[in-house]
């Protein structure tokens, strides 16, 4: 059973604590600003409030005190990098779930993996993909009763589907009535053959040529206002690796592929920075990516220690019992970490 984090009074002051006296759960101080630089030495807090410590108290108040199992930030980041993580699914809202299921199964060749209706919360979920959820990245569609239209916004980019033959795939999609918005051909400024299609709600899918891939649903592309800030966040707060960064000055954008393993075998988060564009409208259609973890509590601690924002404290979901924690990146994109064991039970 996990111990509850210790409460930290707003009047807590920074103090020197002998190493031997450091409790099992330490209190580490982190700046609240997302993307704050790592500090090698944690500042420990004690609850003693004394006179003459106003400045320290003010600085403690201005920062986020984290009750954590870790004794240093380095320990926290090392744990996150070694955690058992992978992208589980991407969650987004659709206006007619049966129409989308038909499009994804008939045009995109996905399988309907499971569907659940939660009438008490007035929504339905459908999980679709190219392989079982215990080993593949999949989509989780959400239909909210009575809502048939969403705003996709300008920040969401696309989902990527890798295929052996883009031209053939696009012809099948077209023949089945799918909307092709960019014909197959080499990507501008590169060699990879790509095409773009749109689903019934207007979500874009990039079809890209990558023969023999084990993970056809391979990318979630989101636009960000500061690429280095976003890379730093996904490295430090999420324990991801920068797999590839490519600048395309001719077309004035840079992309960074972030993930938990090589791009040809694992789904990745593709972050796109368009020169000079620092803000996007995120709409209300795209939801979040879900990431598996062995410990949602430690995960939330790591996010806080790296200056990231936890928008849902770790704990079990009412009704389902699956433990999760939700975080926001510096651009406001959400990720949800899901306990691996609880998730496996959901699939039983
Ligand atoms: C292979 C992999 O790197 C790509 O497919 S990148 C695709 C490329 N992306 C962009 O242009 C991103 C910047 C753009 N301004 C945006 O915000 O989406 C792309 O979409 N190319 C279009 C083309 O027709 O080649």
Task: Tell me about this structure.
The chain contains seven helices and 20 strands. With 348 residues, the protein is an alpha+beta fold. It has a single domain (52-346), classed as 2,3-Dihydroxybiphenyl 1,2-Dioxygenase, domain 1, CATH 3.10.180. The protein has an eight-stranded mixed β-sheet with strand order 6-7-8-5-17-20-19-18. Strand 14 (241-248) and strand 15 form a beta hairpin. The relative contact order is 0.15. The model is unreliable at 1-24 and 31-63 (pLDDT under 50). Bound molecules: the ligand C[C@@H](O)C(=O)SC[C@H](NC(=O)CC[C@H](N)C(=O)O)C(=O)NCC(=O)O. Residues 157, 182, 187-188, 190, 192, 194, 206, 208, 223, 251, 253, 255, 272, 274 line the site of the ligand C[C@@H](O)C(=O)SC[C@H](NC(=O)CC[C@H](N)C(=O)O)C(=O)NCC(=O)O. This is lactoylglutathione lyase.
How do the helices and strands line up, and which of them pair or pack?
Elements: E1 13-14, E2 26-30, E3 45-46, H1 54-62, E4 64-68, H2 73-82, E5 87-93, H3 97-106, E6 111-118, E7 123-129, E8 138-144, E9 156-163, H4 166-175, E10 179-186, E11 193-198, E12 204-209, E13 217-223, H5 227-236, E14 241-248, E15 253-259, E16 268-274, E17 286-293, H6 296-305, E18 309-316, E19 323-328, E20 334-339, H7 340-347
Parallel strand pairs: 5-8, 9-12, 13-16, 17-20
Antiparallel strand pairs: 1-3, 2-4, 5-17, 6-7, 7-8, 9-13, 10-11, 11-12, 14-15, 15-16, 18-19, 19-20
Bound molecules: the ligand C[C@@H](O)C(=O)SC[C@H](NC(=O)CC[C@H](N)C(=O)O)C(=O)NCC(=O)O.
Residues 157, 182, 187-188, 190, 192, 194, 206, 208, 223, 251, 253, 255, 272, 274 line the site of the ligand C[C@@H](O)C(=O)SC[C@H](NC(=O)CC[C@H](N)C(=O)O)C(=O)NCC(=O)O.
Family: Belongs to the glyoxalase I family.
Domain VOC: 86-210, 216-340
Cofactor: Zn(2+)
